[in-house]
UniProtKB/TrEMBL annotation:
Chief place of localization: cytoplasm
Pfam (any one): UMPH-1
GO CC, one annotated term: cytoplasm
Signal peptide from the UniProt entry: none
Subcellular location: Cytoplasm
Protein's organism: Acanthochromis polyacanthus
Protein name (record): 5'-nucleotidase
SUPFAM superfamilies: HAD-like
UniProt family annotation: Belongs to the pyrimidine 5'-nucleotidase family.
Length: 314
């Protein structure tokens, strides 16, 4: 067993099953491996020195059942466009207020357990579409994104250099799926110096006009209900992944488990889940769904140890 799997932050429902998956994946070789990961709160820190870190999504207070709590919205609309851009003052106060109104209207629908996905979907798309329209009206400048990220406190998890560099050195594809904004996500990775050629990002991208002003969002909307590899199987990139039937999946929500749904002829999948908060109420559901659960762990120590094992470096 990998020593790091004995860390205090590690929880596993079936350690023996984890060991079997690891041995099978290692035997198959690193040339059969691909890594599929969420971005916010998975590759980035949830908190640092007791303070919540900014994300590519937004964080707002919402009154629910008489009390107020801070929640992280896994959707593309970003009520302040993003914590990063919010802090940079690229979004007007009026826009923030309108986006917050949308949030208060539609978020209760998203978390309503009495509604089916089929019932929620058109309302969610309506929400995100309205949010995009508001953001386009802000005429955000492309050249300000780099500055906004640089001045933010966005942080990749400790150990990110080894994670990104090791995958690159072994030519292992890293597919990052995000319902956030790809332009911001890529800039965070680029400024960290680890945006290698093996990294493929699937997210929502801004479309700028010839003067560098935001005019629209590109392509098909990526949201919490289609953030998965299966939604993109028709693209040429996925043909080359058919020879990589072993998957290391990393996420921080139960919804992230669907990201590998489209992998064809899968042989093995090892699922690592970050349980960042509300530990007691969510721990069992994570243990039932993820093979390895990392509780309030702000590092990539365990994923790195797994990768070193799978590539024969440990």
């Amino acid at each position: 067993m990998i020593p790091e799997l004995s860390n205090p932050s590690v929880c596993m429902r079936d350690p023996q099953r984890v060991q079997e998956i690891l041995q099978s994946m290692q035997k198959a070789g690193s040339n059969t491996l691909q890594v599929i990961s969420d971005f916010d709160m998975t590759l980035t820190r949830f908190a640092y020195n007791g303070k919540r870190c900014p994300t590519c999504h937004s964080k707002y207070e919402l009154d629910v059942v008489g009390f107020s709590y801070i929640f992280h919205v896994y959707i593309i609309l970003c009520s302040s466009f993003a914590d990063i851009l919010d802090n940079s003052k690229l979004i007007s106060n009026d826009c923030k207020e309108q986006l917050k109104e949308l949030l208060n209207t539609y978020y209760p629908i998203e978390i309503d357990s009495t509604r089916s996905v089929e019932e929620k979907l058109p309302l969610m798309v309506e929400w995100w579409t309205k949010a995009h329209e508001l953001l386009v009206q802000e005429k955000i400048k492309k050249d300000m994104l780099e500055v906004a990220v640089r001045e933010s406190e966005a942080m990749l998890r400790e150990g990110y250099q080894l994670f990104f560099n090791h995958l690159y050195e072994h030519s292992i594809p890293l597919l990052i799926f995000s319902a956030g904004i790809g332009d911001i996500l890529e800039e965070v990775i680029r400024q960290a110096g680890v945006f290698h050629s093996n990294v493929k990002v699937f997210s929502n991208y801004m479309d700028f006009d010839e003067t560098g002003l935001l005019k629209a969002f590109k392509g098909e909307l990526i949201h919490i209900y289609n953030k998965r590899e299966g939604a993109l199987l028709n693209t040429g990139h996925f043909q080359e992944l058919r020879t990589r039937p072993n998957v290391l999946l990393m996420g921080d929500s139960l919804g992230d488990l669907n990201m590998a749904d489209g992998v064809q002829d899968m042989e093995n999948i090892l699922k690592i889940g970050y349980l960042n908060d509300k530990v007691e109420e969510r721990k069992q559901s994570y243990l039932d769904s993820y093979d390895i659960v990392l509780v309030e762990d702000e590092t990539l120590e365990v994923p790195n140890a797994v990768l070193l094992y799978l590539t024969g470096n440990k």
